[in-house]
Design goal:
The complex is a heterodimer. By secondary structure, chain A is an alpha/beta fold. Chain A has 2 domains: 256 residues, Aspartate Aminotransferase, domain 2 (3-Layer(aba) Sandwich), CATH 3.40.640; 119 residues, Aspartate Aminotransferase, domain 1. Chain A has 13 helices and 12 strands. In chain A, helix 8 links the parallel strand 4 and strand 5. The longest helix of chain A is centred in the C-terminal third of the chain and has 38 residues. Chain B is of the alpha/beta class. Chain B is globular and about 80 Å long. In chain B, strand 4, helix 8 and strand 5 form a beta-alpha-beta unit. Helix content of chain B is 35%, strand content 13%. In chain B, the strands form 3 sheets. Chain B has a 7-stranded mixed sheet with strand order 1-7-6-5-4-2-3, sandwiched between helices. The chains are: A alpha/beta, B alpha/beta. The interface between A and B is large, with 210 and 206 residues.
């Protein structure tokens, strides 16, 4: 052991490697990971981290409407609040830390320029109901973003207000419904492939349609014969994701559109996977009537741990008249918000939310689009597809690809290659956590057994893709070599081990309650 | 291009590994007619400086709330948000994470959602709250749908004090779901009128307090009467700071409470993103829409949090789900939670009291303007006045003088017969000189 001048050891003691026998810490913390309780479990419920003056008047005029009962909301000083939430943050995986290969989720780099732009007071400190003469820049931005979305998709109109992908689906189906009703042709069924996102059937049912599934072919695409058999005069729409959730382009998409249109139905496209084709293929050229665009996927607005998103819906000429209010029109040099069912909005199907949609997301998305430009966006699609195919090529020798041929922006594997190992897709995914990667999308799409859907996006370097593939190959070797322990108990190195979801659902504890202290759930 | 790490040599090396000659070989499944070799007709890429310049020019064409006297409310409110809030929500681990489907590496998100749910339940006085909705208006529409499921009835009665955009949002969804909506005529102080419209098929009555016109209503009697007829009471709150001063909806007997949470932690943002709050009685939890975070333990017995009761949700139940919602307002909920944690009960009560006091100051100032009539008797931080002219034209005129004088009711209900009614709001950001400037401008306006 070498010593410095005052005798402090400066080298580790040889032989004291404790792998396998790491002692538990005494206080609950683990190095940089602090054991952090809930804000409700602290002392000092009468403190506050905000300095406010005494109110200048009392509330006697409110009489017995004044709240008397306590709310039990703890207040934290600013340093305590900062530390609490920073400690929590360190228990999250993030795209800024490592690859986040969730298929169908498009977790790409979120440029900070976009954050800066969205925070300009000229966008962030503007009220939605100010006189329109005072918000011409905001309306101009919406109009410019709309122009980019229509040009990239080759569509006639866009409804900007939907607040997320599922909200966009709602918008599209309501427009379709209104279009049918306008010609006195109410219809009752919506066809959805078995590989669809759960939001598709949920949305169709939510707006009162019966949902019928369309079969899939052995090569992972819509079964045209089954579609043709199920189309009929009572079918309102088909909802198809393209590229689909197997990561494949629907080769027969134009024929599908023709069949659907011949039956008097509309083609709704789930645009969750637009990143694979942005700038390279226009959905309008494929016969699509309506498609939502997840600005929080393709156009890089941050996912924020579950939102906010934004889901504008591009519409064909046939559906454009039914777009919901409000929308922006340009009259001469002046932008105007059409907010009511009159004039060009006479056939609007209604309204989807209180104001004009997700302005904060519009700013970020336009900032991203202007940065990339038409040339950069085309490169986005190409690199996203290239990265996915590279992963597919590197892993296919060991893991079993679900389908032959090139994929689009995500590579789909099934669990055949794990047969006989006793290890499941879930186990494999949890072992990835120990290696520092977020798991891929698992058990989706439902049509592939033990599905593992990997979407790298275009913002990964070749070095990071190689690191990822190398680790997955090592894990695959370990799985095949019978190292089941590594998988069955995983993760071992994450902030927490596997969680008991059954307990959570059986005895729902959805809020902190004073009588239930830490550890009671462990009974 | 600064966001794309692959170099030309990376690309050709990778194509080699794949066994493809060109990138086009990977797009072979796209029909020929739809393949594009050239970029679409839009400008090409730009540097950060150029983009910043272009967007700043657009931003400069908007008048901001902070630029001068500002009195707009009606569903979106300007409050001071502590700098800490925006700093924390921009941390990579919060900003750039996905929905917490892998709880072992998402405890940061899950724990703040659990804290958020607890805060929302405490604030509204309800037993359970979900992990957020898009905004207050979509939460209202979802609450109506939920009430129809719970009661198996087909009619919803909306008060005349409900924000007109909330009412239209709910109507749009209810119509296609086969729920009949009866909207009562706009009334400054008439939330209780919903009771006269209840029949045997009424699933819910929807009231708002403070309502569009600012009127604060004790809904205790409305709750009891609605429930006696088998209907649920849905209470809508657009200004959530009011709950720091006013009796909570739970205390007054609400079955479902929905609110716009923007006021706490979130900027005006020209209308979005905002954060919808959704709280209910525990017996209805399995009919609630949206994500729920619950407490559990991990394999070593340590406490942790997971998304739970997912069998209500679209990714499990598909066409049998309680809602189609997936992405919600996670980061806005985090902003809400941080701001609320800083305020605490003490700070929230004081903030609410200041808002109320400022609104009283505003009212007193306006009472000195000849021709102005105060229409709202009991209010929190916003109220309605009648002006002897067209309110929208007046607002436009005052905007020209640098004053954003509130929201004319005609902006929300163009044919509502209230063209001379103006909604004004004051918050802790309103100064006495703002009020003096408005009063002086109004005295010169008619």
């Amino acid at each position: 052991m070498s010593m410095n001048a005052v005798g402090r050891p400066t080298r580790p003691v040889p032989g004291l490697t404790l792998a396998g026998t790491i002692p538990a810490t005494l206080g609950g913390g683990r190095g940089l990971l602090q054991d952090e309780g809930l804000i409700f479990e602290r002392e000092g419920w009468d403190s506050s981290g905000v300095d406010l003056p005494e109110p200048s008047r009392d509330a006697a005029d409110l009489g017995d409407m004044v709240r008397k009962a306590p709310m039990r909301l703890p207040g934290l000083s600013e340093p305590e609040a900062m530390r609490h939430y920073v400690r929590l943050s360190q228990k999250n995986h993030a795209i800024d830390l490592a690859l986040y290969p969730l298929g169908s989720c498009t977790m790409k780099h979120n440029p900070r320029l976009n954050e800066k732009m969205a925070r300009l007071p000229g966008f962030a400190d503007v009220h939605p109901l100010q006189p329109q003469s005072t918000v011409q820049g905001a309306l101009g931005l919406m109009d410019q973003l709309a122009h980019w979305l229509m040009t990239l998709t080759g569509m006639s109109a866009v409804a900007m207000s939907p607040k997320a992908g599922a909200h966009g689906e709602l918008c599209g189906l309501l427009a379709i419904r209104a279009a049918h009703e306008a010609r006195g042709d109410a219809r009752k069924r919506v066809l959805v492939p078995t590989s669809a996102h759960g939001t598709n059937p949920a949305t169709a049912a939510f707006v009162g349609y019966e949902v019928e599934e369309i079969a899939q072919t052995a090569d992972g695409r819509v079964d045209i014969a089954d579609l043709a058999a199920k189309l009929g005069p009572d079918v309102a729409a088909i909802m198809v994701t393209n590229p689909n959730t197997c990561g494949l382009f629907e080769r027969d998409v134009i024929e599908i559109a023709e069949l659907v249109h011949a039956a008097g139905a509309y083609f709704y496209c789930d645009g969750a996977n637009f990143n694979a084709i942005v700038g390279r293929v226009r959905p309008g050229d494929l016969g699509v009537d309506a498609m939502h665009i997840n600005l929080h996927k393709t156009f890089s607005t941050p996912h924020g741990g579950g939102g906010p998103g934004s889901g504008p819906v591009v519409l064909s000429a046939a559906l454009a008249p039914f777009a919901p209010t409000p929308f922006v029109v340009k009259r001469g040099e002046v932008y105007e918000l059409v907010e009511y069912r009159e004039g060009e909005a006479a056939q609007a199907f209604g309204r989807l939310c209180a104001f004009h949609g997700q302005m904060g997301m519009y700013v970020r998305a336009l900032s991203y689009m202007l940065s990339h430009g038409a040339d950069g966006l085309k490169q986005v699609a190409e690199d996203a597809v290239l990265n996915a195919n590279y992963i597919k090529a590197r892993l296919s020798g060991v893991m079993s690809a679900a389908f032959e041929g090139p994929c689009m922006h995500e590579a789909l594997f099934d669990d055949h290659w794990l047969e006989g190992t006793g290890i499941t897709t879930l186990d494999f995914a949890k072992a990835m956590i120990d290696e520092g990667f977020h798991p891929m999308t698992m058990y989706f799409p439902l049509v592939v057994h033990g599905a593992m859907l990997i979407e790298p996006t275009e913002t990964e370097s070749k070095a990071e893709l190689d690191r990822f593939c190398d680790v997955l190959l090592l894990l695959a070797q370990a799985a095949k070599a019978g190292d089941a322990e590594r998988f069955k108990g995983a993760p071992f190195h994450a902030p927490l081990r596997r969680l008991d979801e059954t307990l959570a659902a059986r005895k729902p504890r959805l809020r902190w309650r004073p009588e239930l202290s830490v550890g009671v759930a462990a009974e | 291009m600064r966001y794309l790490p692959l170099s030309p040599s990376d690309r050709s090396a990778m194509l080699g590994v794949i066994g493809a000659a060109t990138i086009d070989d990977l797009f072979v499944d796209v029909p020929h007619a739809a393949r594009r070799d050239q970029p679409v007709d839009l400008p090409f890429h730009q540097g950060e400086l150029e983009v910043e310049r272009a967007l700043s020019a657009l931003a400069a064409r908007n008048r901001t709330a902070g630029q001068g006297p500002f009195f707009c409310g009606a569903g979106a409110y300007r409050h001071h948000v502590p700098a800490t809030v925006d700093h924390i929500i921009q941390r990579s681990e919060f900003l750039t994470s996905y929905t917490p489907y892998q709880p072992e590496i998402a405890q940061g998100t899950l724990q703040y959602l659990f804290e958020f749910q607890t805060q929302v339940a405490a604030l509204t006085g309800m037993e359970v709250a979900n992990a957020s909705m898009y905004d207050g208006s979509t939460a209202t529409a979802e609450a109506v749908m939920m009430a129809a499921r719970v009661t198996r009835r087909g009619k919803a009665v909306l008060s005349g004090g409900l924000h007109p955009h909330y009412a239209r949002t709910a109507e749009t969804l209810a119509k296609v779901a086969g729920v009949q909506v009866q909207r009562l005529d706009a009334a400054i102080d008439g939330e209780a009128a919903v009771l006269d419209a209840i029949d045997d098929d009424t699933a819910c009555v929807v009231v708002q307090t403070p309502n569009l016109f600012g009127t604060v209503t004790d809904v205790t009697a409305i709750a009891a009467a609605a429930q006696a007829k088998g209907a649920l009471l849905i209470v809508v709150v657009t200004e959530v700071v009011s709950l720091g001063l006013l009796k909570g909806p739970g205390e007054m007997g609400a079955d479902i409470v929905v609110a716009e949470g923007q006021s706490i932690g979130n900027a005006l943002n020209f209308g979005g993103p905002y954060v919808g709050l959704f709280a209910a009685r525990e017996i209805y939890v399995r009919q609630m829409p949206g994500r729920l975070c619950g407490e559990t333990v991990d394999a070593d017995g340590r406490r942790g949090f997971v998304l739970t009761l997912s069998t209500r949700e679209q990714h499990i139940r598909r066409d049998k789900a309680t809602s189609n919602i997936c992405t919600n307002s996670g980061l806005c909920a985090l902003a809400f939670t941080i701001h609320m944690s800083l305020l605490g009960e003490v700070g929230l009560r004081r903030l609410a009291a200041i808002n109320h006091a400022k609104a009283l100051d505003l009212r007193d100032g306006l009472m000195g303007v000849p021709g102005v009539e105060i229409l709202t008797e009991r209010f929190f931080n916003e109220f309605a006045i009648r002006v002897p002219t067209d309110a929208a034209a007046l607002v436009e005129t005052l905007a020209g003088q640098g004053i954003l004088a509130g929201v004319p009711v005609s902006r929300l209900s163009p044919k509502g017969g209230m063209d001379d009614v103006l909604l004004l709001c004051a918050t802790e950001t309103t100064t006495s000189s703002d009020i003096a400037a408005l009063v002086a401008a109004l005295k010169g306006a008619f």
